[in-house]
Specification:
The structure holds 2 protein chains of 2 kinds. Chain A is of the alpha/beta class. Chain A contains 29 helices and 32 strands. Chain A is globular and about 70 Å long. Chain B is mostly helical. Chain B has one domain: TorD-like (Orthogonal Bundle). Classes of the chains: A alpha/beta, B mainly alpha. At the A-B interface, helix 1, strand 1 and helix 7 of A face helix 1, helix 2, helix 3, helix 7 and strand 3 of B. The complex binds iron/sulfur cluster (SF4). Iron/sulfur cluster binds at residues 54, 56-57, 59-61, 88-89, 91-92, 224-225 of chain A.
């Protein structure tokens, strides 16, 4: 509420003096409702407003799509969203171009020439569905459903439940690849190892200090706009201090009070040293000490606070700031100062993302950062790093599913990663090439440009092109991207502005928000939502899913979800787009909830003495309690699904519920799972082997995202690509001078897997020794706006094509020279630590 | 019940809605006052009102001291002085006037009088149901017009609270928030800084300083105000 004391008398005196107001403005009609209305500047007519949801990035902000004369003309934020508060980013607004992209695919297309040659013929949906369903049926009838591989990129919420849970589940294949390892899978695995769940949520509204390791929340990220605008608010209106650790002066680093230009991969040393400062200076006392009750810090299921503190001190003792300075290039003085600031400004929010995590040693970087947040008491508290809260949709499910079968090709080669809990999508094509774990007969990809988005692009192309390795390839796509170009059949999907979905992204205010996506206009041409196509395929194969279209699935989900049903179900959601319970309170400290005896004294629930975990042996698919006890919680496959609670002292708490791994209900700083895999159970320093062997002329290549493009699927948006289509490599003046490179020079960047040519931008905004190249650019397909190349099925109905002043200037793609190398623990693609040589051409 | 500051500076118990209404009223008066200050040279009547003891005290409490001379100079003389000062500051080009328009002052804007920004502001008024009367022969993005527009919006908020139309109050706050952050706040500080630097008369120095302080308070509180109002009526 307004701080009124200062002006209150003046207002009153002004009122008394009745300041004459010969104003220049008068109100002619009522103030319209804010947001949700828009008028054509040409005709003055009101535009149709459709409450829906963005999908230009994974954040999935609720939005309002405006339609004029049947065309999507504008997209705005949804003012009634508690997540976005009506804000949206350029990418979301650029989504308007998807629908009107002249290179959009409007009909099913079948390859007629050689694969990749670009020769296609239009076929009917009946032909396309018969062809795919026929092949699927052959595999299913032969008892080899696993030979159908489904590989997806962005497939969340309702489309995931329709396709993955229901369609693929009922079909019986578990050969399902995702894309998470090229995204943030490494961070998620590390979080699963510590607090169980994969997402985190940053409570900027209530924080007093932000310490950011390698995240760029003001430009991109999993919960971009909902967090970005809150962060800006915290920085500007409450003057919260932010310190950013990054190899590059990102726009987030630039808006921070302090930028710590770290050596790539040195984030781990820095994080360990900050833990050292906190423990050696007893800064854990207070909030941190209190939180340690819920932490596992030693091998013992229940240890004393004294022993926990000793174990932490012992582990971090070696990682002094002076030691870290040698590995991260941040001065010991700065490390101490920032660590102290972070520990003493409670609540403080520890932020991290790919910049810190997509490295060889990223797993322990994230574990060390989780530890730093834990020992300062900044976990799941107002203003801290919180467990994610999202809505719980109920949805229709096929009752009887076959036992699924799978080809072991989604987790990479044996031993390449110890705990790839989010798989290793960048190694799928490599595994297919290798063939030792089998190969799919049908490879179907959905919203995933594997060719472009993975590392080692040439290898991806070679595998996808080779019909002896992949006999039949189906691509589901609104656009002609690099993977579609290598398919045998393209099933055209409408862009998200023409689709149905319910959505469930996490909320930065710790209150769940339900929202839907609905088509602003009917799907153009003969495009069909893949959710509906999956139903049609199922029907042809003889599988009854119980629903026939995506719209029906969304409607049924609205009716099944109590919170939504209570306010009017599907009709309410169509009208309003978003819903949250106005009485809901933000959810913090959920781990502290005490369980009632009836929850853990059930006949099928037992206590695992080794971990103090209560678990349900029946749910864990054991035959008896004895069999379960014998095998133990930790070593029973999938036991995390049977987790009940965590015993601490004489109480049983909800604890930190595991998600994909059999960890206990403690916040595990000490990880028995890591120990089992032969790693140090406590956060530990690992240097990057390739960096240890670097020669004098070598540099480290890092990658990044900009505010106006998403990773790989937005360059067809002309508004965005006009803003950002070229990506000169950032090189520090010291490195440039040594190599005789000046601004704008063409340079060659070479790694062990290839080389690219790119323009140079000489700037001190990148650390010496590092070359930074953004994603997004260097497409060779994706239509004229992205690459200059017309899709074979492109049309000429966009006058802006003639005004495309950046034609021929599409930048360079760094993935040609990034090996598909994983973090050896979690399998994350190492986007940030490739050793390269840079030379002037 | 919460405790709020009453208009006499004392405290009184009030329900949250009347607290919101009182605060909106106070802001509306301030916006109106400032719109008037920058619209035209002050009249003798206006100066007389400002020179009363109670107004002087109120100004002092708001951190504005217009100095002894302001209160002792003959009114007629002061009217003349301020007319000259107003003309020098805002109207006369040779003196390096500070054109009080968003289109001219907006950092990285067009820099043109009647630039595209003027039309955008006019469109904004129009889209929200307001008509700009050109009787002053001035542009819609004049500082006084933008302040007056805010005064209208805050006034609508206040009357909505009074009539227990809470959704309407929130709606008006959302427009205040939007207009303030997309227009006024982007140039008002830079404009006021120039006034402060170039003004010679205590009247404009003082009111520029008052405006800066009030705008800063709005800058730091308006988005929270939107959030809190939405929470209050369970909308967001
Ligand atoms: S952050 Fe931007 S691109 Fe991502 S969902 Fe929100 S508006 Fe869309």
């Amino acid at each position: 509420m307004l701080n009124r004391r200062k002006f209150v008398k003046l207002s009153a005196a002004t009122a008394a003096a009745s300041v004459a107001m010969n104003g220049t403005l008068s109100q002619a009609r009522e103030l319209p409702v804010f947001g949700g209305k828009d008028y054509s500047p040409a005709t003055g007519r009101e535009r149709k407003a459709v409450p829906s949801a963005c999908l230009n990035c994974v954040t999935r902000c609720p939005n309002i799509v405006y339609v004029e004369d049947g065309r999507i003309v504008k997209i705005e934020g949804q003012p009634n969203s508690i997540r976005s508060e009506g804000k949206m980013c350029a990418k979301g607004q650029g989504g308007v171009n998807h629908s009107n992209d002249p290179d959009r695919i409007l009909y099913p297309m079948k390859r007629v020439g050689k694969r990749g040659e670009g020769q296609w013929k239009r076929i009917s949906w009946d032909e396309a569905l018969d062809e795919v369903a026929g092949r699927l049926k052959v595999l299913k009838d032969a008892g080899t459903p696993e030979k159908f591989m489904f590989h997806y990129g962005r497939m969340k919420s309702s489309i995931s439940k329709m396709v993955k849970t229901n369609f693929l589940g009922a079909y019986g294949t578990k050969t399902i690849g995702n894309h998470t390892s090229i995204c943030e899978g490494g961070k998620w695995t590390a979080q699963e190892l510590t607090w169980g769940k994969h997402y985190d949520s940053w409570d900027f509204d209530n924080t007093r200090y932000v310490l950011n390791f390698g995240a760029n929340p003001l430009e991109a990220g999993t919960n971009h706009i909902p967090t970005a605008h809150r962060l800006i608010r915290a920085l500007t209106t409450r003057e919260v201090k932010m310190v950013t650790v990054d190899v590059r002066l990102s726009n987030t680093a630039a808006k921070s009070q302090e930028w710590l230009p770290v050596r790539p991969g040195g984030d781990l040393a820095l994080a360990l040293a900050m833990c050292n400062v906190v423990m050696s200076e007893d800064l854990h006392k207070g909030h941190g000490e209190e939180f340690l009750k819920f932490c596992k810090v030693t091998d013992t299921a229940e240890d004393t606070l004294e022993n926990k503190v000793k174990a932490l001190k012992d582990n971090f003792e070696q990682y002094t700031p002076e030691w870290a300075e040698q590995h991260c290039d941040i001065s010991a003085h700065a490390i101490r100062r920032v660590a102290r600031e972070f520990a003493t400004n409670h609540p403080a929010c520890l932020v991290s993302y790919r910049g810190a995590v997509a490295h060889y040693n990223g797993n322990d970087t994230e574990r060390a950062l989780q530890t730093l947040a834990a020992i300062t008491g900044n976990i799941d508290n107002p203003g801290g790093r919180c467990l994610a809260v999202g809505p719980k949709w109920k949805y229709p499910k096929v009752k009887k599913m076959p036992k699924g079968r799978k080809l072991k090709i989604v987790d990479g080669p044996k031993g390449a990663a110890a705990i790839p809990s989010h798989h290793m999508s960048h190694n799928v094509l490599k595994m297919i090439k290798d063939g030792s774990a089998g190969r799919p007969d049908i490879y179907m990809s959905y919203m995933y440009t594997a060719v472009y988005a993975n590392g080692d692009v040439q290898e991806n192309i070679d595998v996808l092109k080779d019909e002896s390795l992949i006999p039949y390839s189906v691509n589901i796509n609104p656009f002609y991207d690099e993977s579609a170009a290598l398919a045998d059949l393209i099933l055209p999907e409408p862009p998200y502005t023409e689709r149905w979905d319910w959505e469930d992204m996490v909320s930065p205010v710790q209150i769940p928000e339900y929202y839907i996506r609905q088509p602003a206009i009917p799907p153009m041409g003969e495009t069909r939502d893949f959710g509906t196509v999956a139903c049609q395929l199922a029907e042809r194969i003889g599988i009854d899913l119980g629903f026939k279209t995506k719209e029906e699935f969304v409607r049924l989900s609205c009716e099944k979800t109590p919170a939504i049903k209570a306010v009017g179900g599907f009709e309410y959601m169509k009208k309003h787009g978003v819903y949250h319970d106005p009485k809901a309170k933000p959810k913090y400290y959920s781990y502290r909830k005490e369980l009632k005896p009836k929850d853990y004294e059930k006949a099928t629930v037992i206590l695992d003495e080794a971990t103090g975990t209560y678990w349900d042996w029946k749910k864990a698919k054991h035959k008896s309690a004895e069999a379960a006890q014998k095998k133990g919680y930790t070593h029973s496959k999938g036991a995390y699904k049977a987790y009940v609670g965590q015993r601490i002292g004489n109480k049983v708490y909800k604890g930190f519920k595991p998600d994909k791994l059999n960890k206990s209900g403690y916040f595990e700083i000490y990880s028995g799972l890591m120990k089992d895999k032969g790693f140090n159970p406590m956060p530990t320093w690992y240097s990057i082997p390739e960096h240890d062997k670097m020669g004098d002329n070598d540099m480290i290549m890092t990658t990044y995202k900009v505010a106006t493009q998403i990773h790989s699927r937005s360059q067809n948006c002309k508004y965005l690509t006009e803003l950002y289509h070229d990506n000169p490599a950032w090189i520090n003046p010291l490195d440039a001078e040594r190599r005789g490179i000046i601004e704008g020079d063409e340079v060659k960047v070479k790694s062990e897997v290839g080389e690219i040519t790119i323009k140079a931008r000489i700037t001190p905004a990148v650390k010496p020794g590092v070359i930074a190249i953004s994603h997004h650019c260097g497409h060779w397909e994706y239509g004229r706006y992205a690459s200059g190349n017309k899709a074979p099925m492109g049309h000429e109905d966009d006058p802006d094509l003639k005004r495309m002043w950046w034609k021929g200037n599409h930048g360079a793609h760094p993935n040609w020279i990034i090996p598909n190398a994983p973090d050896p623990i979690n399998g994350q693609l190492r986007f940030m630590d490739t050793v390269v040589q840079v030379m002037k051409i | 019940m919460t405790t709020v500051i009453a208009s006499d500076g004392g405290t009184q118990a009030a329900d949250p809605l009347s607290e919101w209404m009182a605060s909106a009223d106070e802001r509306a008066f301030l916006y109106r006052l400032l719109a008037d200050v920058f619209r035209r040279e002050p009249s003798a009547q206006r100066l007389e009102e400002i020179r009363t003891d109670s107004y002087r005290e109120a100004l002092n409490e708001a951190g504005v001291d217009l100095g002894e001379a302001f209160y002792s100079t003959a009114i007629d003389e002061q009217v003349e002085e301020l007319a000259v000062e107003f003309t020098r500051l805002f109207l006369l080009s040779p003196g390096g006037r500070i054109a009080p328009y968003e289109s001219v002052q907006l950092p990285d804007g067009s820099g043109q009088l009647r630039g595209p920004e003027s039309q955008i502001v006019l469109d904004y008024y129009g889209a929200t149901g307001f008509v700009h009367h050109d009787e002053m022969n001035d542009m819609p993005d004049h500082i006084s017009a933008e302040l007056e527009y805010m005064a209208h919006l805050v006034g609508l908020e206040s009357s909505s609270w009074a009539n227990e139309k809470q959704e309407d109050a929130l709606n008006a706050i959302r427009y205040q928030n939007d207009f303030f952050y997309t227009h006024l706040s982007n140039w008002v500080f830079c404009f006021l800084k120039k006034v402060n630097e170039r003004a010679e008369h205590a009247y404009y120095v003082g009111f520029a300083e008052l405006a800066r302080e009030f705008m800063e308070q709005e800058l730091s509180e308006l988005s929270d105000r939107t959030k809190q109002a939405a929470q209050l009526i369970n909308r967001v």
